TrEMBL record:
It comes from Eutreptiella gymnastica. Belongs to the cullin family. Transmembrane segments: none annotated. GO terms for cellular component: cullin-RING ubiquitin ligase complex. This is Cullin family profile domain-containing protein. Residues 414-639 form the Cullin family profile domain. Coiled coil: none annotated. PROSITE patterns: CULLIN_1, CULLIN_2. Keywords: Isopeptide bond, Ubl conjugation. SMART domains: CULLIN, Cullin_Nedd8. InterPro entries: Cullin, Cullin-like_AB, Cullin_CS, Cullin_homology, Cullin_homology_sf, Cullin_N, Cullin_neddylation_domain, Cullin_repeat-like_dom_sf. GO terms for molecular function: ubiquitin protein ligase binding. Residues 1-16 have a biased composition (Low complexity).
């Protein structure tokens, strides 16, 4: 009986669930059909509510819970576990899948089959939207299966299973037609026809969802073709836009509009991963493929826009071409060449005499300022444009200029000299506004950074600054302001001498106060207002030291100051630089008393006439112990021109002075003002250019020794390259000079050549 019973049980349950299971399944089929009816009722919630079947209603919640409970009971009963029958969970999963497939093939396929164009789009939109609702509520009905069976058996969850069913039963049959309809809709929108973006977004999302949490199907079945169509469309559009009226003038505006439209289109109904791909496609067709044609267009390219100051169009060009790889390099190269051309035009105006040195620097600063504003406003301060400007400036600003007119006619000048003179004029301008000065100094330093001969500028500036400080024609705070900016750019060693000069000027004022205190303490009465400025030799330019024997009234005070200074500082030696001194001489002429501001040489010559009524140039030289040439130069400034304080004793009209020419005071001299200055040139020893060349030889030698001491052995090329690298911040070393310095160091025993390879040097300790 047991055997018969067992056999009967197997026959009844093998591959066939029990009546209880079938009864439960029938309830689930009714619940699923009710869901389908609700979904296909076009989401008429009001109608469903009348029937008590709307989501959220009590009846809806009741039958959903009944369906869930039914699934729970069927799964937990574990049908057939004792007698080897089919597990209820597996049967339930299989039947749920079959029910979904049947619904899709019998009802959904009919809605989309053989439909074309917009009708297909609408029906797929509806079918897919319905199916998503089915998935949503179906997952709830069969949730217990997801929580236990699918996880334990490592098979697709309910959501994935239902999506796969849709993919097999519906999607695979319509995907080609659907894609064509979608692309046609996109084309219509690009042509300016309004389309339903809501439909587009949901239907395109179908391609994404068919990938089951990957984008593979979306990319292969839709995005690939979308990008192909996009490329074709904009390839035709680019050719059309470039050849129509307006051409390149309107081309970038159209590109800008197209990119905005495609960006908006992508975020409206494409998957998020497509945005950059679409933008890249449009950029390739409209920008990359026509880059040089657009940038070099003679009427609307970069140079044409620069020439016509079309800054907004340049900003648009920048904004668009920065999007593509290396898109700004050709634009910056054109900009560099254009600035170079503008700079050379400024050079030409200066050489032709149309502008002077100050106007030349002003024009160079204005040009620099113009592009600074352009870079900030339209180019987002991208470094590539600053680099292009620097390269352009380094070309034209470092050209040696030879004016055909003006004070420097025929002589060669450099921007280093012109910029230093510009600073000199600026510092001597007492009326300059502090804010304006700050702005000017900032621009000056910006221009300075492009000069290759920074050491030459330093020498010129030091020479002119010394004159300003000595005659008190500058504000020390203004000097410090520029020195601080130069220090930030070049470092402390570059400005150490300039800072030392400022310090000397301050110490001299303190020294003068101490000198007067010393005289009062010694009960010494000064017969004139005597002031001496003590300068440190290493800081100041090398001025001429002479053997002047001043008149007694001057020499007495000079000896007194030396006595004071030796008492105060025994370790330092004073050397008088008479060529830098000034004096105020009071003299009475027939037409009134006059006060003359003169140099020390001029004062000494004039004081000689307190003891003699007339003297020859030769006698003056012997009396003052000055070379005859210096006497001639000084007397010439006092006897000829606007300030004829002296006159020849005879009526000879020539301006050349000989040793025997005799001079006397011109009692008939008159001047409209009571106090005036008689010009005199302060002479320094050596030309700044020659001095700079000499300094460079020493600097190059020191650099060679420093490099070889560190490296011990180097080839000629490597040593030369390293020297240029280390010194290029101050000046551009001449390779011939480097070679000569190497040869000189070899002769002096600092270096030696390798016996085998004569192109290799070794350092000798």
């Amino acid at each position: 009986m047991n055997k018969a019973g067992q056999g009967k049980y197997k026959q009844q349950t093998q591959g066939k669930p029990s009546p209880e299971f079938e009864a439960g399944w029938n309830q689930l089929e009714v619940a699923f059909q009710r869901l389908i009816d609700y979904v296909e009722n076009n989401f008429d919630v009001s109608k469903a509510a009348k029937d008590g079947a709307a989501p959220g209603s009590n009846e809806w919640n009741t039958w959903q819970m009944q369906a869930y409970t039914c699934v729970y009971n069927l799964c937990t009963k574990n049908e057939g576990s004792k007698h080897g029958g089919v597990a209820s969970q597996q049967i339930l999963y299989q039947r749920a899948q079959a029910m979904i497939e049947k619904y899709l093939s019998e009802r959904v396929n009919k809605q989309v089959q053989d439909k074309k164009g917009e009708e297909l789009l609408r029906n797929v939109y509806t079918a897919w939207d319905h199916h998503l609702l089915v998935v949503r509520w179906g997952k709830f009905m069969f949730r217990y299966l997801d929580e236990y069976y699918t996880k334990n058996q490592n098979i697709c969850n309910l959501r994935i299973m239902m999506l796969k069913c849709f993919c097999t039963a519906v999607y695979e049959k319509i995907k080609t037609d659907l894609r064509q309809v979608l692309l046609a809709e996109v084309q219509k929108e690009r042509d300016g026809i309004e389309i339903n973006r809501t439909y587009m977004k949901l239907v395109i999302q179908l391609f994404v969802d068919m990938g089951m949490d990957t984008n593979e199907i979306y990319e292969n079945d839709f995005e690939k073709y979308f990008l192909q169509d996009t490329a074709k469309f904009y390839k035709r559009a680019a050719s059309l836009w470039l050849n129509e009226d307006g051409g390149n003038f309107t081309y970038l505006r159209r590109v800008e509009k197209a990119l905005n439209e495609e960006h908006n289109r992508a975020i409206s109904y494409l998957h998020g991963s497509s945005l950059q791909n679409v933008i890249n496609c449009v950029e390739t067709e409209l920008l990359m493929n026509y880059q040089m044609q657009v940038l070099e267009d003679p009427d609307a390219g970069t140079e044409a826009l620069l020439m016509n100051n079309k800054t907004e169009d340049l900003g648009r060009m920048f904004t668009l071409f920065k999007r593509i790889q290396k898109g700004l390099e050709p634009m910056s190269a054109i900009l560099r060449d254009f600035i170079k051309k503008e700079g050379k035009e400024i050079n030409k105006k200066f050489c032709d005499g149309d502008i002077d040195g100050n106007a030349y620097i002003d024009a160079s600063l204005d040009l620099y300022d113009k592009y600074t504003e352009m870079f900030q406003t339209y180019f987002e301060n991208f470094p590539i444009f600053h680099k292009a400007r620097k390269e352009a400036y380094e070309v034209f600003i470092n050209e040696t200029l030879q004016p055909a007119k003006g004070e420097t006619t025929g002589s060669k000048v450099t921007t280093s000299e012109l910029l230093s003179t510009y600073c000199d004029n600026l510092m001597k301008n007492e009326k300059v506004d502090p804010d304006e000065l700050e702005s000017k100094l900032h621009k000056i330093v910006c221009l300075f950074t492009n000069i290759s001969d920074k050491d030459l500028f330093q020498e010129f500036y030091r020479k002119q600054m010394s004159k300003r400080l000595l005659v008190s024609k500058t504000d020390n705070d203004n000097e410090r302001q520029l020195i601080a900016k130069l220090k930030m750019k070049m470092g402390a060693p570059y400005t150490s001498k300039l800072e030392g000069m400022i310090v000397d000027k301050g110490l001299s004022a303190e020294t003068q106060k101490n000198f007067l205190d010393y005289c009062r303490a010694q009960d010494i009465e000064l017969k004139l207002e005597f002031s001496a400025q003590v300068l440190t030799t290493g800081f100041w330019p090398a001025f001429k030291i002479d053997t002047l024997n001043p008149p007694e009234i001057l020499s007495t005070h000079m000896d007194l100051f030396r006595q004071f200074y030796d008492h105060k500082t025994q370790s330092r030696v004073l050397k008088w630089v008479h060529s830098l001194g000034t004096a105020t001489i009071s003299s009475k002429f027939k037409k009134g008393q006059k006060e003359m501001i003169v140099s020390t040489y001029q004062a000494c010559v004039l004081l000689l006439f307190n003891t003699k009524s007339a003297m020859t140039a030769g006698e003056m030289g012997k009396e003052l112990a000055l070379p005859l040439d210096e006497v001639k130069r000084t007397v010439h400034s006092l006897a000829f021109g606007k300030f004829a304080i002296l006159k020849r004793t005879n009526d000879i009209k020539k301006k050349q002075i000989t040793e025997d020419d005799e001079f006397e005071v011109n009692d008939d001299f008159n001047h409209p003002t009571r106090k005036f200055k008689i010009p005199n040139v302060i002479k320094t020893v050596g030309d700044p250019v020659e001095k700079t060349d000499e300094n460079r030889r020493h600097v190059i030698e020191a650099c060679i020794v420093r490099v070889m001491k560190s490296r011990k052995q180097l080839s000629h090329l490597d040593l030369q390259t390293e020297c240029i690298r280390q010194l290029s911040n101050y000046f551009k070393p001449d390779m011939k000079v480097i070679k000569k310095r190497i040869e000189d160091l070899i002769q002096r025993g600092y270096l030696e050549r390798d016996e085998v390879d004569r192109n290799i040097y070794r350092y000798l300790a």
